[in-house]
Amino acid sequence: MSKIKVEELTKIFGKKPKRALDMLNQQKSKDEILKETNMTVGVNKASFEVEHGEIFVIMGLSGSGKSTLVRLLNRLIEPTDGSVWIDGEDLAKMDEKKLREVRRSKMSMVFQKFGLFPFRTIIENVEYGLEVQGIPKQERRAKSQTSLELVGLKGYEDKYPNELSGGMQQRVGLARALANDPDVLLMDEAFSALDPLIRKDMQDELLDLQEQMKKTIIFITHDLDEALRIGDRIMIMKDGAIIQIGTPEEILTSPENEYVERFVEDVDRSKVFTAQHVMMRPEAVNLEKDGPRVALQRMKEAGISSIFVTKRNKELLGIVHADEVSKLVKENINSLEGIVQKNVPQVTSETPLNDLMEIASTSPVPIAVVDDNKLKGIIVRGAVLAALSGSEVNFNGSITEASIS
């Protein structure tokens, strides 16, 4: 079961929303409804699911409905139609008491504006939500201390907001949300007010925290680079409607329509794609059982002039070249061990393309993709260039001599 399930969620602002809802059912556009009824479609029949422990990014331009949608998820705004389910419970059917309990125990929200109390210390700001709930002082202080340590603000407990930078103040807001230990974090343009360098630091901070916490995070942004960087999946909205949902790679490589294409056309692919997106199936021989003749045969079949050498458990040892292997065959030597070139360029599957370009341009052999000492794939120069240009590449095939050159 998904953590959050949204079904046909709709919000119409105006005095007679049922009339506008009927027009939506007749496939009328947001502009047509505004012109005829003077009512605004905030969210138009949104349906999606968010998995446990996922960073689900909702993005769109101003007026796309993303901020309205996130407020519908915890009923800060009442929906006109549709349902929101969390852990199988329908928020629309909850009374005020049950809804307050869910907001306190399962959901916390982080806003673009930090909303800190200027005359409270940092730790007093963090524990405010727990104080409202009536949590005893000693318990709320301990929880708040833990939250501040999580976001890297240990030692700042007795400072005041005006003594902290913008990025540090946003960390306080995040710590306040985490103090409840919620299952779900709703983050509405949480980093938008920060300077670019601080914003990147906060993105890194969030990803590091997520490694530890495994929370379900719904993150609202208008910045595609931010969405691609932190999102497990991205949902793009326009005029209150969902245009496309997909992984960062799916959004970049298979945009749903011209609107999404315009979104992604200026993205720096070198910072988004990683080695795993361009690596190919490696041709390799096992040093423990394969000799020079097997290596030559594999190279001949694949049309390549060198081949990687591994142990039986796929641990990378290095690479051998056809001319040296041929000499071993002529000399009737049955082991490759003496000619294995160990100085092979290596990256991990998470290495950004931006870091691969210089290696690929200077290396005379393919780059080895190695995770946990095991050979996972190889990268040739042509695959890197194709990915940067946006061309389609068959990343699962073996290397050909043409692709190496």
UniProtKB/TrEMBL annotation:
Chain ranges passing through the membrane: none
UniProt main location, coarse: membrane
Entry keyword Transmembrane: no
Domain CBS, residue spans: 279-336
Domain of life: Bacteria
InterPro entries to which the protein is assigned, alphabetical: AAA+_ATPase, ABC_osmolyte_uptake_ATP-bind, ABC_transporter-like_ATP-bd, ABC_transporter-like_CS, CBS_dom, CBS_dom_sf, Gly-betaine_transp_ATP-bd, P-loop_NTPase
Location(s), subcellular: Cell inner membrane
PROSITE patterns, A to Z: ABC_TRANSPORTER_1, ABC_TRANSPORTER_2, CBS
Domain ABC transporter: 4-264
GO MF terms held by the record: ATP binding
Enzyme Commission number, as recorded: 7.6.2.9
Reactions accelerated catalytically: a quaternary ammonium(out) + ATP + H2O = a quaternary ammonium(in) + ADP + phosphate + H(+)
Mode of membrane association: Peripheral membrane protein
Keywords, sorted A to Z: Amino-acid transport, ATP-binding, CBS domain, Cell inner membrane, Cell membrane, Membrane, Nucleotide-binding, Transport
Record note on quaternary structure: The complex is probably composed of two ATP-binding proteins, two transmembrane proteins and a solute-binding protein.
Record family assignment: Belongs to the ABC transporter superfamily.
PANTHER family: GLYCINE BETAINE/PROLINE BETAINE TRANSPORT SYSTEM ATP-BINDING PROTEIN PROV (PTHR43869), GLYCINE BETAINE_PROLINE BETAINE TRANSPORT SYSTEM ATP-BINDING PROTEIN PROV (PTHR43869:SF1)
Protein name: Quaternary amine transport ATP-binding protein
Species of origin: Alkalihalobacterium chitinilyticum
